[in-house]
Amino acid sequence: MRRELYNILEHEDETFLSKAYNVLMLLTILISLIPLMTKASLPVLTIMDHSTAIIFGIDYFLRLFTADLKLKRGKWSFLIYPFTILAIVDLVSILPNFLMFNSSFKLLKIIRMGRMLRVFRVIRHSRNIEIIRNVIREQKEALLVVAGLALSYTIITALLIYNVEPDSTFGTFFEAVYWVTMSLTTVGYSDIIATTVLGKLITMISSVLGIAIIALPAGIVTAGYMTEITKKD
């Protein structure tokens, strides 16, 4: 029985029940986000919010019930599972609903924000996201190199622009980092701009190199994604 339950939860077998459960959870995730799209306190939204939280709670305990089949560490699995990333996300996303019944809870407003983590529950129910997870796992070394390159570039360029431009342009180093990030991603809000000739030269170089640095991880993920698709086919 537990094995069959595990197969349904983890979508191990392409059975009707596993597919139906997967669809049910995806719909529940989408419905649970509706109350977060408005600040109105309507009864129907409250019912919707608590109902989806109950479903998530049942899903959490069912996964805990079959934790040994997933983690394969014997009885220790039941102690380890609550500390896995997805289990923590699950718990934090449903806990606020049960704490909401205690109106005297001082951190209620902050903890309610935990409900927004529900959107991350889609990670375990979407095949496409599962493929991307595999890509990141397989290409983590290349992605870490690119991340290190981007971080180094950000810090070095921020130091350059911070020391070249007057204080009236970049009052703090954080503003310089913010400017580099906007230039690196080619977003360019134009709320902070270089005013000196040397600063504008750095801006041009930063924008050109930013395109190349941003393109690297996109290329790595795309190539890895196509490889995973080929494997599955």
UniProtKB/TrEMBL annotation:
Keywords: Ion channel, Ion transport, Membrane, Potassium, Potassium channel, Potassium transport, Transmembrane, Transmembrane helix, Transport
Ranges that cross the membrane: 20-38, 78-99, 143-164, 176-194, 201-226
InterPro entries hit by this protein: Ion_trans_dom (IPR005821), VG_K_chnl (IPR028325)
GO cellular component, one term: voltage-gated potassium channel complex
GO molecular function annotations of the record: voltage-gated potassium channel activity
Bilayer topology term: Multi-pass membrane protein
Cell compartment(s), UniProt: Membrane
Any GO BP annotation: action potential
Every Ion transport domain range: 19-225
Pfam families named among the record's database cross-references: Ion_trans (PF00520)
Protein's UniProt name: Voltage-gated potassium channel
Gene source species: Streptococcus henryi
